[in-house]
Write a structure and sequence with these properties.
By secondary structure, this protein is mainly α. Helix content is about 45%, strand content about 0%. The chain has five helices and no strands. Helix 2 packs across helix 5 (about 75-90) and helix 3 packs across helix 5. The longest helix is centred in the middle third of the chain and has 14 residues, at about 45-60.
Amino acid sequence: YKGSWLSRSKEQTDRYRIPSFIEQIITFLLPKTEQTLGIFRINGDPTQINRLKDRINTAGADAIIDFNCGTVELNDIHIAAGLLKLFLRELPEPILTYSLYD
């Protein structure tokens, strides 16, 4: 699994781009950040997060996930935040790359 959702986002260009599901997560989270305490501190249900991860891995980086559809799984801000944290944690190289530490 590791890196599969990122490698699919690199198919069309030589450079990495932000996968559309990440843009969808951020669009969902931004309006809710002021009203929700511990948005990244409180964990979402790991079973549901992994179910979404599997869905994205199956559909590819351009998977469309409607976080406002009303289902508990997709309307839970902590699940969306947990999915974003999982993606960032599993990147093959951190956002602030190792070369920046030198």
